[in-house]
């Protein structure tokens, strides 16, 4: 998605001089104008995040970004699943292959896992999305970057806001926010609490979030910012995946074992970050980010066996970078260098659970450590006033180790070390101030996570044959703004992934292996048209071919040429928005998701579907206070569809007995009010 109508209008007022900054993006770490960036980057601003939205999941804000596919909106125990250009699709829970950070704090661990349950959309001010390889900037991620910035105390008028929401399936949410500025210090804090019973049995959730930022200007060129985020998730039930026969019987039911075992999770997490920016100590600008995060997690999976999991996680680190503008051979050169040191330490336990829900033994007690040390450099050279050349590289040293404290039969202790060099090269040509053509080629890697490292031989330690998957990404694109009303963003990509990591079920256990390669080719188109002062249309279309190559499926059969499961070849999301006077608005959104397969063997085809949604609102002025009213309807046509498909699940069972499917909610409503005072 290109800039919103407000940003487009701002751009239209700018002059025509080549080289003028139109819209700065910072997610590629080298801060620069969007129209000098040789990559598919989208920017989502505050109105798209907030206006009339529930602010529960990222798909509300990012649906109209081409190339992104979301599943699992309604299962808070598994959380939202996100994939871009095919990366992230294999994850049964959480997010893989995509780097996520909030206010400079990584939400992606050194082993490549990401959790997004602590992201506070009530505080979010801006989201930048890089579609494509991001290893040069951030390391262990082949799919792209989500860079989320929350509001500062001086981003909003001083005051307070109280929001109250309610809706279908006993949905309730309350949020309060306050912000202000005193001298050189600004502060903002947001507190929210959400309850929902869910449209399926065994899908109740409770969740509280607190997010705060305090910024202090030491002088005109130095600033210190502290961020604190806390998540309290005392209940998030998991109804489990259904077979097709169970869906036809009752799509809102939970599995028998999910109810008997009371499957679900509880989470408590606290994160503290500190950022220092200095533009005075050196000719350029120094930025240093430090952080510490603690996560206490417990989960009962919806089946008996070794299915009760708990861990206590400590995640901390420091990132630093230095950016400067200089010259090379008389031409402007902007460059950035930096280093990251991140460490993850998980004390993990796993317990054997009987079909009656009784704990019968402990199967895991170990400490998992992942340490990543990296250095990177990137530069942009202006060959002419219109033509820029970009080159970057990054070296990662990633060590993963396990210290087994149980060791009843086999000692699970061991370690693996990876040394990875990633690089990217690109060219960008400004046809005019607001029109750009670019091309880029880059490499990226994605390591196995600790979960994926389980040894299928049963001898303990790491799987000795599992290696990181390697991606080669090629991309060309154009973007721009016609006049003051039409933004366009077109990208063509071709990606080859070697040593693709896939699930390999053996009996009742799941393991992972490298299996051949995959090819991913596609086109992404985003358009935004300000039809008039009041009307705006937005559309995002993705057409892609995701193919398995040199590949065998979960039964050992030849799967060369099959589709990568879980990825629709067609995605189309459009929105028509009307904005009236004094804060009135209405929006209609329609979404088409093409068919895809549920497993590597391509035996189960998941049907395509259409979804229609609407939201509207109004504002009332009460002296110097404002009352915002809003309401929305999801799945207006009450379409039957699957909000999530558990890819390659239960591969040891016959096809008809595999619990792939999580039915989506039917027609649901929500409404709320916001008092600004």
Automatic annotation (TrEMBL):
Boundaries of every TonB-dependent receptor-like beta-barrel domain copy: 233-636
Gene Ontology cellular-component annotations: cell outer membrane
CDD domains documented for this protein: ligand_gated_channel
Chief localization: membrane
A single GO molecular function term of this UniProt record: siderophore uptake transmembrane transporter activity
Domain of life: Bacteria
Domain TonB-dependent receptor plug: 34-145
Keywords: Cell outer membrane, Ion transport, Iron, Iron transport, Membrane, Receptor, Signal, TonB box, Transmembrane, Transmembrane beta strand, Transport
Subcellular location: Cell outer membrane
Entry membrane topology: Multi-pass membrane protein
PROSITE patterns: TONB_DEPENDENT_REC_2 (PS01156), TONB_DEPENDENT_REC_3 (PS52016)
Cross-referenced PANTHER family: FERRICHROME IRON RECEPTOR-RELATED, FERRICHROME OUTER MEMBRANE TRANSPORTER_PHAGE RECEPTOR
Family: Belongs to the TonB-dependent receptor family.
Name of the protein: TonB-dependent receptor
Organism in which the protein naturally occurs: Marinobacter halophilus
